[in-house]
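Q: What would this complex look like in 3D?
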Amino acid sequence: MRRVRLRLLIFAVFFAAGFAIPPAMARGVYLTPQEFLQQSLGSSDHVSQALWLEEVDKLRAREIFKREYPGFRVRYWQEGETTAWIFDEIGKTRSITFGVVVEGKQIKNIRVLQFRESRGSEIRHPFFTQQFIGLSLKGQSGGLSQSVDGITGATLSVRAAIRVARFALYLSGRTAPNQQVAMDD
Amino acid sequence: MKRSLITMSIAGLLALYAGFAQAAEDEVTMAEVMALLKAQQAEIEQLKKQLVNTNQKVEATAGAVESVASTAESYAKVADWADKTHLGGYGELHYNDKENGKTDEVDNHRFVLFVEHEFSDDVRFVSEVELEHSIAGDGQNGEVEVEQAYIEWDFAKNHSATFGQFLLPVGIINETHEPDSFYGVERNPVEKNIIPATWWEAGVKLHGELAAALSYDLAIHSGLETDISGSKAFDIRGGREKVSQASAEDFAYTGRIKYTGVAGLELALAVQYQEDITQGLGADEASALFWESHFAYQAGDFALRGLYASWDIDGDEAESFGRDEQDGWYIEPSYRLTPKLGVFARYSEWDVTAGSNADTEVEQIDLGLNYWLVENVVFKVDWADQSNGDGDSFNLGLGWSF
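A: Here is my prediction, written as structure tokens for the whole assembly.
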């Protein structure tokens, strides 16, 4: 009987502790695209532009993502030499929304806008994302100029971040005036 | 006056002639009109037929469109279901060239499929079914096991509750054990014998973040049921009931704190209390306290992980078998020579009868390498050398996950 009471008490404390936490915004939304653009480019009013993917781009995308990249064009935002990109990439089973800022040929910032996986959300923290700052593409391999230290138990999310960073760096190098077409938001 | 009459007469005659001429002309036009009317009537009849045909075609087209729309809706439902349902799996095939007179083996050690389904943005189902050793059934070596089957509910941002059968939050490989994620053909002996991985129970678990990169797990779940006599008495690994008509007289409680606030670093401490690991079979209550702590660190191509785990079991019966204390630890450095090739070494010590006076501690040194053909397909080779044990072996492995 004493043990039953103890269990009931533990259950009660358990749920009280758990459900006392106030519900927040939708699961895993850490930054909206507008907030990301505001922080990255100083304004969320920028008109997005489109980079049409040529065959060579599709090949590079397939090399990076190990699958066909859907769509004919990629949307991005630009302020001077700074470009901002938003991608969805699968970690293990669900997509993670990343925002990547590229200045010149280097990553200026990478953020997790929305995380939908069950595990691995630690990749959103600055201790992880700061590793990407200043990285560029390395030679013909298209790899990052330095290795990124992973997180135990978040391997697939880490890999998704690396793929997205590589693709943003590659595409930023492809942004030329004659390839840009204004898109409606 | 006479001239006027003559003129009027002529005019009248002319008018009369014109009237007759017009009348004759009108008779011809009427015939033509009748012909025209007949032609038009025929055309109307033809158009009516065409209209009937057209209506039939419109009906047929509408039916086809509705059918397509209905099919598209069905496809949309299927696509929506498929989008919310995820399939995955992993497997590993081993070859063990064993020393000390043991028979060499080739073994399809694990074949695992998992299915996840999202009921909504914050409620999902997760399952994992495993076939061990290729064939299951009476007299066969293998087993079909449900390793995980639970409902996960995100009740608040960065906090979730799990209800059902889940992997316990202990050790390094208990929750994440896809073969491409660790070194060595076989899972390390300390986590296998002391923790004991892979270990699942049924119950309720809370998971969440206390602060940035500081997470917690709290679980109330079913407990172990060890034998109380024979060679397997109070053997932790043998005490897993695997939620198969498991005795639930005595529960267990697990908590873990994990810190991942430095790139490449994980620090974790787990504690578990078992009310009675014999589920009341013994003469005295065999409550048990389990501790586990580990670190995993990666810096560039170099990685280092280490783990310590111990059991402290109450009661004279467990003590009489020397099983009142059981513990082990290991340390494993590794290095990626290339993005595809990594080498590792591991030193392990464990003792499942550490409470006895006899020297029963087993030591094992592993050396080996992994070659990742692609990120999720790995070939493995290693050598295991034991002291105070008979598990020396040369091993080859193939592992994959998706």
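A: To summarize the key features: Chain A has one domain: 26-182. The CA atoms of residues 31 and 113 of chain A lie 5 Å apart.
Q: Very helpful, thank you.
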